[in-house]
């Protein structure tokens, strides 16, 4: 696969509207470590070129947008581990034409699924009651101060339809960039050979 | 009865959190809370696994500072093995760490915070981001991209990957640095100190022009914690120093004794705990960590240019130390300068090329503690293992956790300064969030908590929603 998207000058909509004909992208972080988002920023100066074809309408690390807005492409990092993640995933599916699972966590369930053989309540008990002073309380997700944990941490496609999977922990920035550029051109990204990572 | 506003999620920080503000009947602020809304469970699910897996697994706690977790875990594992590392391994780890602190600080300052600082808290939210900075102040944005990229390339030169490299292991690191990689990094580093000093000057001007209320909305006295080596600023290995609000030393201890001075408390409204200085108790025992705290706690900074900037910084304080949360940004830039200079010194030495990278290590002791200065502050990993080296208990206190009390206090003080009555102006939302951003909280990192930081404020009275603002 080619990673020369920086040079690509023919995005899908060449309508030539002066105001943003760019492909819109929303990214969200579910139960992830932000590492996929971080690796994506490793396109470094390539960001400047990418921004010619692509507009980030939501992305918690870089844009002030709290909702999951309508977008051509919706990208999720992280496993689905609590009730809030489920809601965000569903919004992403509703509001975006194409949904991408970035990284091993979203695509395959990843590191956090190591928690799946324990009961969430026991874990919270141990972490907050067992490892804090005697005046401590356990955040259980009763009420709405914090979202409740799901029984297991599970990959995105067990909750919503996913169109594109980009595995890796994290996937390489060039792979993320090239797949985004392909989607912006209206193509299905080919991720194979070296670009296909599992780590 | 009270009304509640919710800022959910807080954006341009790494992780998941939200803010709620409760108003009293007169529209005054009764309480404000910063909630961390994600629990990830690393402390619990590592139990039963071999301790030598910890550097690789716990790096996944955080994609912003994976190296800090990897190093804290590796240091704890070294103690369990009871080995003394060769000089080469220590310097290679320090080099990795300096690359990491640099890239993370560059992300925090240039990508996340500079939009508020150079475009203004009241700038159009659609523009108030790195793209807006690239348009309005391309030089500044490009400098930031280069600094972050350089730090990431230092990491990649050692551990192959930029995010989640597998480099530090129990007993050392996997390999030495290739000399030609070191030389090209050394050449590329030349202009960086200049970039940072120009940015410090620009920031000083921004602060000089800043409205006082904005500059001071999160100024308060707390204790400060940081590692020191003979009193000097240190990130990789040193003693844990805790000072009072004037910067006078309360404790200076070996890292393994951290639990003698720190206790933690949890609440039912956040997945992030509140640590405090045991002797002073929960209320009086709040302290801060991170760049500002490290500079407040240290007596000196021992590289030439960062040393000079440190003197200038401390001379600008109103009292013996800096209490303004907004000055975290300034301190962060000084630390970036320190990182670049330390990277240059390490690349100019021989240990990173010719040193011995690791020694044989197997579990000998039942407890190990690794403490390191992560970009956002003191990071503690503690493990207990059985005879076979399987983890029986793990406790992590991440930087953001130490700052939890201070962030909550900052949010409350910002709410008190800017919110009267049942409506919340848009720029106030952002001001509240930028308190949080001063601390650059890594919510991914706070294993007990955090995920996404959207911002949503709801105002309630007697359970009825009066106003609800979101972006
Ligand atoms: S796939 Fe790896 S980098 Fe991405 S969120 Fe998961 S742990 Fe982090």
Automatic annotation (TrEMBL), chain A:
Residues 1-14 have a biased composition (Low complexity). InterPro entries: Hydrogenase_assoc-protein, NADH_UbQ_OxRdtase-like_20kDa, NiFe_Hase_small_N_sf. Keywords: Oxidoreductase, Ubiquinone. Residues 1-20 are annotated as: Disordered. SUPFAM superfamilies: HydA/Nqo6-like. Residues 33-182 form the NADH:ubiquinone oxidoreductase-like 20kDa subunit domain. Pfam families: Oxidored_q6 (PF01058). GO terms for molecular function: iron-sulfur cluster binding; oxidoreductase activity. PANTHER family: COENZYME F420-REDUCING HYDROGENASE, GAMMA SUBUNIT, F420-NON-REDUCING HYDROGENASE VHU SUBUNIT G. This is NADH:ubiquinone oxidoreductase.
From TrEMBL, chain B:
InterPro entries: Ni-dep_hyd_lsu, Ni-dep_hyd_lsu_Ni_BS, NiFe-Hase_large. GO terms for molecular function: ferredoxin hydrogenase activity; nickel cation binding. It comes from the Archaea. Fe cation binds at residues 65, 445. The keyword Transmembrane does not apply. Its cofactor is Ni(2+); Fe cation. Ni(2+) binds at residues 65, 442. Mg(2+) binds at residues 43, 62, 448. Keywords: Iron, Magnesium, Metal-binding, Nickel, Oxidoreductase. Pfam families: NiFeSe_Hases. Belongs to the [NiFe]/[NiFeSe] hydrogenase large subunit family. This is Ni/Fe hydrogenase subunit alpha. The lineage of its organism: Archaea, Methanobacteriati, Methanobacteriota, Stenosarchaea group, Halobacteria.
